[in-house]
Structures are given as structure tokens and as C-alpha cells.
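fwd from M.: "can u put these together and see what the complex looks like"

so here's what she sent:
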Amino acid sequence: MYVLEIENLTKEFSKNGRKFKAVDDVSFTIDAGECCGLVGESGSGKSTIAKMVARLLPPTSGTIKLLGEEITYLQGKRLRQAYQKMAMVFQMPKDSFNPRRKLGSSIQEVMTNAGIHRADAKKRTLELLDLVELKREYADRFPHQISGGECQRAALARALAGNPQLLICDEATSALDVSVQAQIVALLKRLQQELGLSYLMICHDLALVKNLCDTVVVIQGGQLVETGTADAVIGNPKQAYTKLLLESVFPVDPTETWVLPEYPR
Amino acid sequence: MTPILSIQQLDVSYCGTRILNDVTLALHTGKILGVVGESGSGKSTLLQAVIGLLGDHGRIDHGKLEFDGIDLIRIKKKDMRRLRGKRLGMVFQHPGASMNPIRKIGVQFLEALHAHGDFDKKEVRTRILNMLSELRLTDGERILNSYPFELSGGMNQRVAIALAMVLHPELLLADEPTSALDVTVQAQVVRQLMDLRDHFGTAMMMVTHNMGVISYMVDQIAVMYAGRVVEYGNKLDVMKHPQHPYTKALIAAIPQLHGRKMVGIPGQPPVFGEPYAGCPFAARCTSARAACRQELKLVPNDYGNGHWTLCPYGCD
Ligand SMILES: Nc1ncnc2c1ncn2[C@@H]1O[C@H](COP(=O)(O)OP(=O)(O)OP(=O)(O)O)[C@@H](O)[C@H]1O
Ligand SMILES: Nc1ncnc2c1ncn2[C@@H]1O[C@H](COP(=O)(O)OP(=O)(O)OP(=O)(O)O)[C@@H](O)[C@H]1O
Ligand SMILES: [Mg+2]
Ligand SMILES: [Mg+2]
């Protein structure tokens, strides 16, 4: 069973009377319990795809199915029901928290909105903070009182509060140092195994994608260029653009010689 | 040679809770210092202290901060504003912090430039467009006509970098400047930053989690843990012969394209404000000894060539 099916998804924006396609006829699927990595150049339309799936942005054309149900044009109560099955961690976590609200209360709100009793929601909030390796004291902090990486973890805790089946992560680990990254990756893998959670992971770090994802979708200029299992796409890329991506990764060893690839203009 | 930036025994706190502890670092013209370390260890706080933007709750409790002989702690607000942008550039971790959300990008560039003198409008526009295209923002006209929300995360980040670079500052403080960029764009942005250094001798303090970027572009590395610099040295010494157990664990956690799995560090750093005995990493350190949790004095242990750590038991 597919958790997510995207078919011929297109998004057009217009600027000063000029139209351009940020997402151009993209189709792919995510199986239940699968982690799908979405990679590609900055500005290629990854966040736009994520926002359309999360129904934060209407597509120009195409369809989106969540757990078999088409959600592209849902409204009202049915849309709210669909919302409960997915959650999103945004690229700029600081913008996604209400600046005048304590983090704990922002996380709790997700649960009280879903009809969970306040006391239970409060208890669960603290457990979620444990889960993402944040100290419980952080429930009483405001978003501007924590570091970038801590905010990313708080956003993850809030996303998990609604027990989603699909978690959309837009650069959810990019503000974390590699050791905390490793902990979060272990957590995401555990949730995948224990709860069968599926992921759409937008991530620039190809080594991380290789470590975490089952499948990969590569996009460039709004179009899908290559897709397959993570091992196949990263281990044996077929398309020139995917190869260029892999050649652009800086080696971690400072004694390794590495030359900047030539980029087409 | 006197350093362009000198940080001495700096202590910083938020709302009375001590965050940075005894930070001493020096940066010379034309050098790039990479700052790495645990999330929440105080890296952004350190940069914000240097540029005088700690916010209402932040306070420098003790220490010295000097930029080209200017005392940055006692400097007048007005003089600091004049330094910022012109001689001191800053790229914030959160690109939104460098930009006004309700002004078009082009207007923001002009404002930034006009604050520091008169420029020929047309010439400036060409210069900005060139700069954007070097950062692989080829659709420059559209970008200058856009509001930040109309651009992708990585586009905003590059605009913030261009804003910080446009006046060729002598010191550039960059907090995670490439975290929202894909690897191809990242490689070119890193190239541009290095060009700025090569042509104008800009000194840089770069906070990044990307160890590949560190390996490629920096000269020295400072490793931070729980508000302290726990290891410092030339890039090769720190990357190839790390001496502090935290640095070793950090390097072991780097994800790799081919081969080994990522390993985290079990446990958590101490809570800021709660006193601990000995070394802040002791509770998570696999080679900790009894002394580490008790009377250990945190004094730099020298390995020569400027390489030092706060761990007295280097384990190479
Ligand atoms: N609200 C909007 N109005 C106009 N154009 C937009 C809007 N949102 C996005 N765009 C444009 O759509 C394109 C794709 O943006 P998107 O944010 O999806 O890229 P991305 O792949 O997520 O990039 P990054 O890796 O940098 O975050 C960009 O050219 C961007 O300027
Ligand atoms: N305004 C503030 N008030 C109170 N505490 C703060 C404030 N800003 C940051 N802190 C705390 O200070 C510590 C250091 O934060 P800082 O942002 O410097 O970390 P960092 O090393 O940059 O982390 P990251 O890599 O996650 O960005 C964190 O524990 C954070 O929660
Ligand atoms: Mg994006
Ligand atoms: Mg930071």
C-alpha cells in the first residue's frame, strides 16, 4: 500500500507577469514504512512539492493521494482528518513556532486540538522532548531562547505529537552537529521500524540520505531526473546531474585531493 | 603580527545563566577559523557576542573582545553600527535574521550600501547582479524583484551571504552559511568565500556542521563543547590527530557516502547553569578517569604547533 502517491504534480508561479514552473510534472510514490529522500539543486522545487503535499499550497495541476485517498482538493472536515495523518518539519524551524508561545505549549496544542486531555498532553510533551534528546526544561523556553539545532529538534517533537503516518521533513537535520544528527537518524529509524512511520525527507546531505533513506528522488529545475533505491542512485548514478551532485560532496579527509567540478552555466 | 580579532577569556550569559566560559581565540587577517561543536554549545552566541547582537537577555560578564585594536565591548552603539556591514560582515544561522521580510531584496541591497556611503546606482546594480550570479543565482533580476518569502531557503541564504560580502569586510562571521544549500551550490559558495579571502584578505569565522566544508576551506579549527573551546589547532592536526575525546567522537559521527555507519554520542551535555565537577564531557567520555569527574583543572594542554586541548590525557 502506498502512503503517498504524487501524479503529474505541477506548480506555476508568476512574477511581474512572467510565469515559471517551480515544479514540473513530477510523479513518484512512497510505500508504507518507507523513507524517501528528495534531493536536488537549491531552488529546484523541493520545498514547493512538500508544501503541496502538506496542502499548504494549491497545485496548478496534478494529484496527491494520501493512504489511497485523493487529498488534492479536500476542504473542511475531510481535510482536517487528512492533516492528522501527516506532519511537517519546516526548513526554517524558527519561523514555524509562535514566537510568543512557550515551546511546550506549542507542542501540547497539537494534542489538545486533536481532543487529547490537557494533563495527558502535558505528560506526552515531556516524553516527546526526551525522545528528541531535549531537556525537559525547554518546555518553558520561547523559540528565541534556544539554539538553531535545539529548535529543529523541538519542531520534530511537535511533528511527532500528532502520531502521523507520514512525516515530511524539510532539511530537518541540517542545523544539527553530526553527533546529534546520528542520534536523530537513529530515532527516525526506530520510529520507522516500531510504528511503521513513512518519511519524505528533503535533505542536502547525500551521505545522510544514503544512511537513512530507502529510496531517492532527484529533481532539477522542477523536473524529476532520477529515482530508485538509495543504494542504486547513490552507489551507481545513471544521470549526469546525479553524478555531478555526488562529485560535489567535499571529502571529509583534509588530505584527500579534490577538485571543484565544472558546473554548466 | 597582531590578530585582527582577539577574544580573551570571554564569559557570556543569558538571563544570568553562564553559557560561554573562558573562551580565548585569535584570528589573523586572511585566515579562516572553523568553529564546530555540539548543537547548543554556544557557537552562535560567540559570533553574536563579537558583533554586539546578543539581544536583551545576553550579557558579556568578563573578558576582552578586540577588532583591529577597537574594544568591541565598550564601543558606542553608533560606532558599532558603522563597523557592521562595512568592516564586519555577518551571515546569520537563520537567513531571515539578516533580511527584512517585507522589503524586496533589491531595495535591501541598496539600503545596506547607502548606509555606508554614496554609490552609483547603475554600477552597484551590475556589481550585485555579478555577485549573485557567482553564487549561482543566475536569475538575478527576478531575485532583486522578489520578497524573501518568494525565494527558496537556499536562495535566501545566498542573498544573505551576498549582502554580507558586498562591501568586502575585513572580518566575516558566518553562522552555518551553507546549511540550506545543495552540494553543487555549496561548493561554489565556498569557492566564492575563499576568493573573497584571497582577494581582500578577509578573515573569517565559520560555524558549520559540515565537516567536509571544514576540511576544505578552513585553516584552524576550534571545537566547542558546553560553552567552552575544548580543542584548537591547525586543521590537519585537529582532523588527523584529534586529542580531545569529544573531538574524536564528533569525527566518528560524520556520515560517509560509502562505508561506515554514523555513531552518535550517548548521553547529553551538562545543563547550563548547573555546576559540574571536573570536565564537562566526563559523563559521556569513554576514556574518563576518576579525576575527570572531580578535581580536574581545565587548563590548555599543549601539543605544539598551536594545537591544544582542555583534556590533560590526550589519547593519540
Ligand atoms: N510563494 C512564491 N512565489 C513565487 N515564487 C516562489 C514562491 N515559492 C517558491 N518560489 C520559487 O519556486 C522555486 C522553487 O522553490 P523551492 O522553495 O521549492 O526550492 P527548493 O528546492 O526547496 O530550494 P532550497 O533547497 O533552496 O530550499 C524558486 O525559484 C522560488 O523562487
Ligand atoms: N536568548 C537566549 N536566552 C536564553 N538562552 C539562550 C538564548 N539563546 C541561546 N540560548 C541557549 O544558549 C545555548 C547556546 O546557544 P547557541 O545558539 O549559541 O548554540 P549553538 O552552538 O549555535 O547551537 P546550534 O548548533 O544548535 O545552532 C543553548 O543551550 C541555548 O538554548
Ligand atoms: Mg527548500
Ligand atoms: Mg547556532
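replying to her w this: The longest helix of chain B spans residues 183-200.
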